[in-house]
Write a structure and sequence with these properties.
Isopropylmalate Dehydrogenase, 2 domains, twelve-stranded mixed β-sheet, alpha/beta, 12 strands
């Protein structure tokens, strides 16, 4: 990213039956967001015309070919109209194969723009997994699709808010399976994948804590042996590599300690262990960051919200936070490259 220009973000429209289009319009109507970055929406221009009308946006919708198009308006809703959508087969709040196909195409186009260097970061609106699968998506979800497009095999979900940063060793799987998937190697790999993201967040020498699995970190084996058998070996190997890693730290205190500034990152062992503290602190401000990708990717920490979609009820708070964090990460990443 050239130092003399504003960061360039591409925003995918998400599933057009959900809240993606309207929260994008609402976010970009905020002048503070437009001052942070030049934003290019990858989607369907007709959908965004409707979304702008729904929310009574005071910005024009412009179809552009990219950031360098003379028609690009920093104070407009600039849409790369790269997604075909048969509006006769599209219904608000009712995702289907048509809307799923549109969401997939937006992700493909936007990701390529970032990989090619035309944009500095990717911000994705929510997709509807079932609709995407109906349209032929051969991956479990959004993140797995992005990993394939970027040519990587392992990623991790990180949640970021002003108070906490949490990365998850396991993701969307039943708790029984998540526990079975825990190994020292997987914990170590999780930390390794977190390091570039932490650097993009401004933490070049991060203080990392690994959360314990059992009450009181197992109480020396009284409440389980996973801490001694799985977690402590991983922590010791990470320390031996020169990283500042603590743990296993009892899960009932580690997030509070991080909130108080003792740690820059908490490694959570399973989905809810990491999600609950972040959502209690920052339910509508938390942002998903994908660790393991060669690009900056953020997304709001919510789904398509079909129950309120296309009613002008959806709030853009989390998407605006995703844009803010993407800008910050893109700037730090550019500084690292230039340094």
């Amino acid at each position: 990213m050239a130092s003399e220009r504003m960061p360039r973000l591409v925003l995918t429209m998400g599933d057009p039956s959900g809240i993606g289009p309207e929260i994008i319009v609402k976010a970009l109507c905020d002048p503070m967001v437009r001052k942070m970055a030049h934003c290019l929406i990858v989607g369907n221009a007709a959908i965004f015309q409707q979304a702008a009308k729904l929310v009574e946006a005071n910005l024009p919708v412009r179809s552009v070919s990219g950031f360098d198009d003379p028609a690009f308006d920093p104070d407009g809703l600039n849409v790369l109209d790269a997604v075909e959508l048969d509006l006769r087969r599209w219904t608000p709040q009712k995702p289907n194969e048509e809307s799923g196909r549109a969401a997939i195409r937006a992700i493909e186009v936007a990701t390529q723009l970032v990989l090619q260097g035309a944009a500095d970061a990717l911000v994705t609106a929510p997709i509807h997994k079932a609709a995407a699968h109906q349209a032929g998506l051969p991956f479990a979800g959004h993140t797995e699709f992005l990993a394939a497009l970027c040519g990587v095999t392992e990623t991790r979900l990180m949640l970021v808010c002003d108070e906490l940063r949490v990365i998850h060793v396991t993701g969307h799987m039943a708790l029984l399976y998540a526990l079975a998937a825990l190994t020292p190697e997987r914990i170590i790999k999780t930390v390794e994948l977190a390091l570039p993201v932490l650097s993009w967040l401004g933490f070049d020498h991060p203080r990392i804590a690994v959360a314990a699995l059992n009450p009181h970190a197992g109480e020396e084996g009284a409440f389980g042996d996973e801490e001694e058998r799985l977690l402590r070996p991983a922590v010791e190997r990470l320390r031996a590599s020169g990283l500042e890693v603590s743990g296993p730290v009892p899960a009932d205190s580690v997030f509070w300690q991080a909130w108080q500034g003792a740690f820059d990152l908490v490694v959570a062992l399973y989905h809810d262990q990491g999600h609950i503290p972040v959502k209690v602190l920052a339910f509508d401000r938390a942002v998903n960051v994908t660790a393991g990708l060669p690009i900056v990717r953020t997304s709001p920490d919510h789904g398509v919200a079909l129950d309120i979609a296309w009613q002008n009820r959806a709030r853009a708070t989390s998407l605006m936070a995703a844009i803010r964090w993407a800008v910050m990460m893109a700037k730090h990443r550019a500084l690292g490259r230039s340094g």
